[in-house]
Amino acid sequence: MEKNKKNAILSVFDKTGIVEFAQELVSLDWKIFSSSGTARVLHEGGIPVTDVSKITGLAPILDHRVATLAPQIHGGLLAMEKHLQELKKLGYPWIDLVCVDLYPLKEEICRPGATLESVLEKTDIGGPTLLRSGAKGRRIVVIGSSDRERVIEWLKNGEPNAEEFRNALAAKAEAIAADYSLESARFRGNGNYDGIIGHRVVSCKYGENPWQTPAALFAQETNDSLALQNFKLVEGSDPSYINWCDIDRLLQTITHIAAVFEQNHNNIPFIAVGAKHGNACGASVATDAGDALRGMIDGDPLALFGGLVMTNFPISGQEAKLLREWNTSDGTKRILDGVLAPSFSKEARLNLSRKGGKCRLLENSALENLGMDSLDVAPRFRYVRGGFLRQPNYTYVLDLKDPDLEIVGHTCSESQKTDLLLACAVGSTSNSNTITLVKNGAVIGNGVGQKDRVGAATLAIAGAKRSGHDIRGAVAYSDSFFPFPDGPQILIEAGVQVIFTSKGSVKDEATREVCREAEISLYFLPDSRCRGFFGH
Fold this sequence. Notes:
By secondary structure, the protein is of the alpha/beta class. The protein contains 20 helices and 23 strands. Belongs to the PurH family.
C-alpha cells in the first residue's frame, strides 16, 4: 500500500455532520474507511466508504465491542517511514487521519439511575485507543466535530506548519482520552481517585506577582454557561490572574445573592456587587439598576477603587456614568479594573474605557438569568503540597422558613429580612472569619479574613464608619458562632438591630442573653447546617 495514498478512518458515536466531513475529504481525493455504524451512515449519504472489516478481514465481534482493535488498523496508525515496506508486505494501509468521538460516558455517569453495568456499556475502548495510536503515530487526529472544519481548511491550504498543527491536535486528543479515563476512575474508585484536566484558554502576563510566570486560565469541558471561559472580553486588555480570581469570587457572591432571594421571595432583584481581592467591598439589591449601583458604590467607595464590579443587568450609558463618577466637583473619575454584565451599550463601553485598556469589560448573557440553578455545584479543589484537597462546593442557601431556625426576640421587619438575606449571601462568600453589615439593601461593612470574631466585628464597624454609614438599625451576619458574648456586644453597641449567626458554642446562652437584654433580634441555626466559612 503506497504511503502517498491518503487514507482516513472515521468512527463516531454522534453521526451529526460526519457525512459533510467525509464529503470534503473525498473531494480532496481521500479514501474513507469506517466502522459498521458510521459506514452505514456514510453509505446512505452517498459517500464511497470501505468498512474496516475489509482491512482486518474480521467482522466486529462480541456485540461490536471489538471492531477496530486490530494490528491491521493500529499498525497503519503507528507505522513510521522506516516501516513502509513492512506495511506493504503485510498489506496494511498507511492511515493518515483518524476522526473519532467517544461514547457518552460522562452523560451516562450523570444520568439518574446509572449503574455499573450501564456505565460499562458506555465506556469506549476502541475510540480512545484509536486516538492515542493516531497521536503517537503523529497522524491527523480529529476528536469530535469542533476541529473538522479547521482540519479541512488546513488541508485545502496545503498543510502549513504541519508538525505544529498535528502536534496540537494530538495533544488535545491525549488530554481528552486522559479525562475520559479519569471519569471512569472516579466512578469506579468510590472517591479514591480524582484530578483536574483543562486546556489553556487565556495566558496571563503573570500570576499574583510579576515574578510568577507563566500564568494562565485553564478551562475544563463543561456545560456551565457561567464558566469563566464563557465571558467575552468586549473592551480593554486581557484580564490578569488576579482579575480571574476576583471574577470567580464575584460569581460565588452574586449567584448566592440571587439564590437566596429566589429561595425566600421567588423573585430576583437587581444585583450589583463590587469586589477587591476576592471579597465584596460593596453589594446591593434594589428594584432598579441605578439604585443597585448606588448602594454598591456607597458601601466602601475607597475599597472599590481599582476593583471589579458584576451585575445581573445590562450596563447602558447611564449605568456606566454612575460607575465612573467619583468626585463631581472636580470631574475625577472612579478607576475600576473591570465590569462584568450581561451586555454593554456602545455608550457604556466608551464611558468605562481607560487608557491602555485597563478597564476590562466582559459580557455573559447568562448573568441576566441568575437563580438557584446558577450556584456552582462542581467540587472545589485546592492545591496543597504534594497533592490537593477536594470538598463539595459552597451551596448552602438560607431559608427563613427552615424549621430549625430559632428566633430570639422579635421577628425582624420585611426590610430587615431583605438585609438579612443579602448579609448571609455576601458573608458566606467572603474570606472567614467574617462579619457582614447590611442596611437598606446594601452592604455597609464587611470585616473579612480575621482571626477572631471580635476583630471581624470591629473591622466591619470601622469600615462602615469610614464610609460615613449610620450603623443604627443594621443587620449583622456572622459566618460562625460567637465563642463569647463580646462579639455581639460590640455589634449591639454600634447600633446593630438584627444578628444572624450559627449556634454550637458552649456560650450560646450568653449570646442569647446579651441579645435579649438589648431587645434585638437574634437568628440562630445549627453550626453544622449553616456555617459559612469560605476561602481558608
